[in-house]
């Protein structure tokens, strides 16, 4: 068979499979629309669960969403606590791990910080905290870029001198 014919047949198969999967979702969304805007104004976090539950096999999709989200949050906190414990450990040999109690301490601090920000005032407080924490880091970043540019200029000058020396 000609490669173009095989390509057309496989494209058509994928197209039909996509239609078979998407049409029930679109049909359900169009036949029973959700008042998403009103739901967001009432309870924004619950809106995500309501949208997922509204889909075909919504309970299964919601269970998968909760499982994936839980794994994502757990691995994120584990990585963050490991990094903080590694940075805060005074003597850590190459390839070594920080003490388990140190990692647990930082995981607890991160958890308390998250819960505290949620109880204090939600998203506005988190945005303010990120802005306040990010400002000094941005200023340090400016100095780091300036230092990098100076280092690159110095390194380029040495490279030009060594290239001229090799040519002679």
From TrEMBL:
Keywords on record: Cell membrane, Membrane, Transmembrane, Transmembrane helix, Transport
Example of a GO MF term: transmembrane transporter activity
Highest taxon of the lineage: Bacteria
Membrane-spanning segments: 60-77, 104-123, 130-152
Membrane topology per record: Multi-pass membrane protein
Subcellular location: Cell membrane
Keyword Transmembrane helix assigned: yes
One annotated Gene Ontology cellular component of this protein: plasma membrane
Principal localisation: membrane
Family indicated by similarity: Belongs to the BCCT transporter (TC 2.A.15) family.
UniProt name for this protein: Choline transporter
């Amino acid at each position: 068979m000609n490669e173009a014919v095989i390509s057309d047949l496989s494209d058509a198969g994928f197209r039909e499979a996509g239609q078979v999967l998407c049409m029930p979702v679109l049909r359900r969304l169009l036949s029973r629309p959700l008042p998403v805007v009103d739901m967001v104004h009432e309870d924004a976090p619950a809106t995500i669960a309501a949208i997922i539950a509204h889909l075909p096999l919504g309970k299964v999709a919601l269970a998968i969403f909760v499982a994936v989200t839980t794994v994502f949050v757990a691995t994120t906190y584990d990585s963050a606590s490991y990094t903080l414990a590694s940075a805060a450990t005074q003597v850590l040999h190459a390839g070594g791990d920080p003490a388990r109690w140190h990692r647990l301490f930082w995981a607890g601090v991160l958890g308390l910080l998250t819960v505290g920000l949620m109880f204090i005032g939600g998203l506005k407080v988190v945005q303010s905290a990120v802005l306040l924490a990010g400002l000094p880091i941005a200023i340090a970043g400016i100095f780091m870029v300036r230092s990098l540019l100076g280092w690159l200029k110095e390194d380029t000058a040495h490279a030009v001198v060594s290239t001229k020396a090799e040519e002679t």
